[in-house]
TrEMBL record:
Key words, A-Z: Aminoacyl-tRNA synthetase, ATP-binding, Cytoplasm, Ligase, Nucleotide-binding, Protein biosynthesis
Function text: Catalyzes the attachment of tryptophan to tRNA(Trp).
Classification via Pfam families: tRNA-synt_1b (PF00579)
Subunit structure: Homodimer.
GO terms, molecular function: ligase activity
Taxonomic source organism: Methylobacterium isbiliense
This protein's encoding gene: trpS
Residue ranges annotated as motif 'KMSKS' region: 208-212
Name of the molecule in the record: Tryptophan--tRNA ligase
UniProt-listed PANTHER family: TRYPTOPHAN--TRNA LIGASE, MITOCHONDRIAL (PTHR43766:SF1)
PROSITE patterns reported for this sequence: AA_TRNA_LIGASE_I
Domain of life: Bacteria
Binding site for ATP: Q13, P14, T15, G21, N22, G150, E151, D152, V199, K208, M209, S210, K211, S212
Length: 347
């Protein structure tokens, strides 16, 4: 595999209720990657959002709210490229080409579709089924080498690699003939990790914290105020035992494990370090400290989001600037893909 220029891409859906899982598993890590990589693209993936029904007016507001969350969390739009997916046509265009590369059997294995479609599979949109192919196109339109995501996206990243590999193999002759060497697409590395790679519901430690959970008590929203955060943490499900003093003692205790993981991530330490301080403590004391940490981390983000969404003109200008810069990278890549596939292009 030839060396590709390092480039980070990731996205968040504008589907409401941005929560602590999105923040710790994704957005906060986007911020941390900015100094390490010259090019980072952070995308509000609105084409993904409409794979399930979205009220049009709410969708517009949500696109601006996710953009505000990116900026409020510390993504610098002058340094990183912040944009919404539907403004850059190459995502959808490449997705079609990838639809003809990906195999039905690969998509049939995607667990997220099974979970989201549930029993009413016949009534799910084709877009929901095809979601992982569009995600591969999002990433590979930029030939991104690194993608920071939560653990729930691991399988989709594997599919992205499979599509890249199959494209590189199927078109190997044409890739070389057009001067792109041995491979056109990188095999993208997922960046998954840390104690909050999978933040779980506060009501059920076996279920992922999720935007669509009907219970607002299952998640801490980025826009929750200090009182709401305190109430949700205090009501979070736990068991009757005190905290263990070693990580092994968290086995079989999903709710305890989740709260310790959240605490560790907010404080930027390991679970071991948290238990060194709180091993043997009752949940009441631990939850008090967790509230303080969560309010300290999220309070300024929520306040800044509120300030930013009050000025939609500024947000729209950030998105327009980001889209132009994103397209400047994606357009030549798509042109090359069209040549490789054998299409005749307007020149
Ligand atoms: N619980 C989580 N823990 C850690 N990371 C998470 N992410 C989502 N939930 C958790 C990560 O956040 C990024 C953006 O996710 P998304 O909004 O694009 O899609 P999602 O994973 O479908 O979000 P939700 O909250 O789970 O929504 P619903 O309820 O619609 O399914 C991704 O990097 C994701 O891994």
């Amino acid at each position: 595999m030839p060396a590709f220029q390092e480039l980070v891409f990731s996205g968040v859906q504008p589907t409401g209720n941005l929560h602590l899982g999105n923040y710790l598993g994704a957005i906060r890590r986007f911020v941390a990657l900015q100094p390490a990589y010259e090019t980072c693209l952070y995308c509000v993936v609105d084409l993904h959002a409409i794979t399930v029904w979205q009220d049009p007016a709410e969708l517009t507001a949500q696109i601006r709210e996710v953009t505000a969350a990116f900026l409020a969390a510390g993504i610098d739009p002058a340094r990183s490229i912040v944009f919404n997916q539907s403004q850059v046509p190459q995502h959808a265009e490449l997705a079609w080409i990838f639809n003809c590369v990906a195999r039905l059997g690969w998509l049939n294995r995607m667990t997220q579709f099974k979970e989201k479609a549930g029993k009413d599979r016949e009534n799910a949109s084709i877009g929901l089924y095809d979601y992982p192919v569009l995600m591969a196109a999002d990433i590979l339109a930029y030939r991104a080498t690194h993608v920071p995501v939560g653990e729930d996206q691991k399988q989709h990243l594997e599919l992205t690699r499979d599509i890249a590999q199959k494209f590189n193999n199927d078109f190997a002759g044409s890739i070389a003939a057009h001067g792109h060497g041995e491979a056109f697409f990188p095999l993208t590395e997922p960046l998954i990790g840390g104690p909050a790679a999978r933040v779980m519901s506060l009501r059920d430690g076996t279920k992922k914290m999720s935007k669509s959970d009907p219970s607002d008590y299952s998640r801490i929203n980025l826009t929750d105020d200090a009182d709401a955060i305190a109430q949700k943490v205090r009501k979070a499900k736990t068991d009757a035992e005190p905290l263990p003093s070693e990580v092994a003692g968290l086995a079989g205790r999903p709710e305890a494990d989740n709260l310790v993981g959240i605490f560790a991530s907010l404080r930027d330490v390991t679970r071991e370090e948290v238990l060194r301080d709180y091993g043997g403590a009752q949940f009441s004391a631990f939850k008090g400290a967790l509230v303080d940490l969560a309010v300290e981390a999220l309070g300024p983000v929520g306040a800044e989001m509120k300030r930013l969404v009050a000025d939609p003109g500024h947000i729209d200008a950030v998105l327009a600037d980001g889209a132009a810069r994103a397209e400047a990278i994606a357009a030549p890549n798509l042109a090359a893909v069209k040549d490789i596939v054998g299409f005749v292009r307007r020149r």
